[in-house]
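Q: What does the predicted 3D structure of GlsB/YeaQ/YmgE family stress response membrane protein look like?
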Amino acid sequence: MSIIVMIIIGLIAGAIARLLVPGKDDMGWIATIVLGIVGGYVGGTLGSLVFAPHKFDFRPPVEHTFIGAIIGAIIVLLIYRFVRTKV
């Protein structure tokens, strides 16, 4: 997956995650991209553990990339909010 595609999917997945989770986040578009990219890795790892043969790879499976990125971004956003409120 090229870096441009990863950035675009990260931006879209991060933006959708921020829209789906209620509340206000003081994030710019770069933080939204990072949220989506990290969410893609989290969602891809969880997807490969649940649905695919259990192999660990640094790349998420292609068929789980977008939905996994959204689900992973939601998880990362909730963890970010929890940690931010505790500090």
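A (community wiki): The structure tokens above were generated from the sequence. The CA atoms of residues 3 and 42 lie 17 Å apart. The chain is about 70% helix and 0% strand.
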